[in-house]
Amino acid sequence: MSKKLLIAGNWKLNGEKKDISFIKNLLKFHSKKLTKKVDILICPPFTLIDKFCQLTQRSNIEIGGQDCSENETGAYTGEVSANMLNDLNATYCIVGHSERRLYHNENNNLLNKKILNIQKNNIKAILCIGESLSDRKQSKTLRVLGNQLKGALKNNINPNLLEIAYEPIWAIGTGLVPEYSDIEEVHDYISKKLEDFYGKRSKKIRILYGGSVNAKNVFSILSLNNVNGALIGGASLKIKDMKSILKQFI
Ligand code: 13P
């Protein structure tokens, strides 16, 4: 069964007003032929979401958040809610990126609350999971990923508003990529777990790979079994790199 690919850029702590030119350029570049095969998503910092959503309103380019609060509203200084993302017409939100887990102590319980809130606002959640290098060396990868899935996907998560991103922590920003057979093993495992949780309804969930994806390796990685897209950091920041990635799928 082949699913439509999702190619997503996670801009992390990058992006200023001048980068509006990126979206304008992407709008000129994208075509019906491309978006028939690939869903394109850009997740800029919160400060750019409104402008990016306005610019892409009548296109097939989707805009998403990189995180959001587990709360709806109230006295939570510095937070942005899923409702606010929806208000701007953002359609996706990343949740549980390893940088959030590491620098903001986010755990599976919290991520579960965030996903419930994201979905309540009709936004698709992209749940990131991934093992550390020490987990991999101790052959704990699948167990760690299984626990992350089980913990974050409890309490009636809606599989129709869910994507998963497998991002080995040691592959993020390092130029290192797992052996392709290892990526396939993990994606196969995630796919089976999702089937255990949701039965046939799991078929709609895309499983993205993330970690040092670039124009040179993207086609091979996205040709692997059960890899339905990519979550791209560094290589999604420059329009030239993004175009070289996307044009391989036309
Ligand atoms: P890089 O593509 O820079 O390795 O980052 C991956 C990532 O963390 C995407 O969420």
* Proportion of residues in β-strands: 15-25%
| Silhouette | globular
Q: Terminal Cα separation, in Å?
A: 19 Å
User: What would CATH call the homologous superfamily?
Assistant: Aldolase class I
Write down the CATH class. Alpha Beta
Q: Round the mean pLDDT to the nearest integer and report it.
A: 97
The helix/strand class is alpha/beta
Radius of gyration: 17 Å
Residue runs with pLDDT of under 50 for 5 or more positions: none
Cofactors, ions and other ligands in the entry: 1,3-dihydroxyacetonephosphate
Helices, by number, come to 11
Count of separate structural domains: 1
Order of helices and strands: EHHEHEHEHHEHHEHEHEH
**Annotated CATH architecture:** Alpha-Beta Barrel
The largest β sheet comes out as: 8 strands, parallel, barrel
CATH fold call: TIM Barrel
List the main descriptive attributes of the protein structure presented here.
single chain, 250 residues, alpha/beta, TIM Barrel, 16% strand, globular, binds 1,3-dihydroxyacetonephosphate
Question: What would you note in describing this structure?
Answer:
The structure is a single chain. By secondary structure, the chain is of the alpha/beta class. It has one domain (5-237): Alpha-Beta Barrel (TIM Barrel). The protein contains eleven helices and eight strands. The protein has an eight-stranded parallel β-barrel with strand order 1-2-3-4-5-6-7-8, surrounded by four helices. Helix 9 links the parallel strand 6 and strand 7. Helix 1 (20-29) runs parallel beside helix 3 (46-56), helix 6 packs across helix 8 (141-152) and helix 8 packs parallel to helix 9 (180-198). The protein starts with a strand and ends with a helix. The model has no long low-confidence stretch (mean pLDDT 97). 1,3-dihydroxyacetonephosphate is lined by residues 10, 97, 167, 172-173, 210-213, 231-235. 1,3-dihydroxyacetonephosphate binds at residues 10, 97, 167, 172-173, 210-213, 231-235.
